Amino acid sequence: MDLKIVLLGPPGSGKGTQTERLCAELGFTKISTGDLLREAVRNNTPLGVKAKGYMDSGKLVPNELVVDLVKEKLKAVKGGVILDGFPRSLEQAQLLDKFTKVDLVVDIVVNEDNLVKRLTMRRTCKDCSCVYHLEYNPPKVGDECDKCHGPLYQRSDDTERTVRERLNVYKESTLPLTKYYQEKGILKQVDGEGDIAEVYKRILKAIKAK
Ligand code: AP5
Fold first, then answer.
1. Using an 8 Å Cβ cutoff, are 154 and 133 in contact?
2. Nearest CA-CA partner of 80 in 153, 192, 179, 1
3. What is the CA(122)–ligand 1 centre distance, in A?
4. Domain range spanning residue 115?
5. Is residue 89 part of a domain?
6. Which atom of ligand 1 is nearest to the CA of 34?
7. CATH code, domain with 18
8. DSSP reduced 3-state for 44
9. Would you say residue 52 lies in a domain?
10. Could you identify the atom of ligand 1 that is nearest to the CA of residue 110?
11. Are 145 and 125 within 8 A, CB to CB?
């Protein structure tokens, strides 16, 4: 399967978690704008320096900082791709249409109270970006990643205040994408409630039906 898939959904809906699993099982490549931007911030690159303030306050980073990044990554990839966190506005979706054809958009739907709980108790690996949840998906050993033994940390935008702002930004800028992709006939909505394995099965089913 050489599909180009967009995983859509609010912050905390499980895009990163499910992208990791899907890429491992399907042999797809992950392109996560959030991970790429966080890496740039960590390495203090010119992109990271410009992006940091937007990210810490829960706002979207300007298009000129992310669109070319995705374009370059897509050019370098062969085979199936999962885009996690891009596009997240109508403008980004229209720009994406100019340089690639999206085959399927999976929209993960989760109730807002659950999103806040998921995000404020999330821990992320500093080295490989793998995500955990202190209650729903805890690491096996203390504050250490199961996969690479890297240290786990709490993202600076995972405080309740910033999470609320990110949800507002999602409603205003990203939610209209569901209509955009519905009209193109490539949107599949998946129930994102329930445990990680259940949601994974639903997404895989949606992909295999394509
Ligand atoms: P980004 O990193 O993309 O963050 P996000 O979209 O807010 O999504 P999250 O990573 O917070 O959540 P997720 O859906 O991946 O959930 P996860 O799997 O981790 O973006 C961060 C920032 O970068 C943005 O605010 C913006 O500033 C900037 N940015 C990025 N892309 C951009 C773009 N295209 N344009 C402009 N700016 C951009 O799961 C969350 C937690 O829940 C985890 O703890 C997990 O273990 C747990 N969990 C997952 N699934 C379940 C389940 N089924 N049951 C219980 N717990 C679960």
1. no
2. 1
3. 10
4. 4-28+79-208
5. yes
6. 2
7. 3.40.50.300
8. coil
9. no
10. 53
11. yes
Coil vs helix vs strand at 190: strand
Residue 104, pLDDT above cutoff 90: yes
CB neighbourhood size of 85 (10 A): 23
Q: Given ligand 1 and candidates 121, 122, 167, which is best to mutate, with the most ligand atoms within 8 Å of its CB?
A: 122
Residues 30 and 20: their CA atoms lie apart, in Å, by 7
In the reported structure, the alpha carbon of residue 186 is separated from the centroid of ligand 1 by a whole-number distance in angstroms of 22
Backbone angles phi, psi at 105, to 5 degrees: -120, 120
34 lines ligand 1 (CB under 6 A): yes
The pLDDT of residue 124 is 95
Query: Is residue 109 one of the residues assigned to a domain?
Result: yes
CA 182–ligand 1 middle distance (angstroms): 22
Pocket test for ligand 1, best of 60, 140, 201, 202 (most atoms within 8 A of CB): 60
Q: Residue 24 class from Cβ within 10 Å (0-12 exposed, 13-18 middle, 19+ buried)?
A: exposed
The 10s digit of each residue's pLDDT in 5-27 is 999 999 999 999 999 999 999 99
Q: Is residue 45 part of a domain?
A: no
* pTM higher than the cut 0.90: yes
Catalytic entry in 118, 122, 123, 202: 122
Measured distance between the N- and C-terminal CA atoms of the chain, rounded to whole angstroms: 10
Strand partners, 122: 133
Q: How many domains does the chain have?
A: 1
pLDDT of residue 1: 77
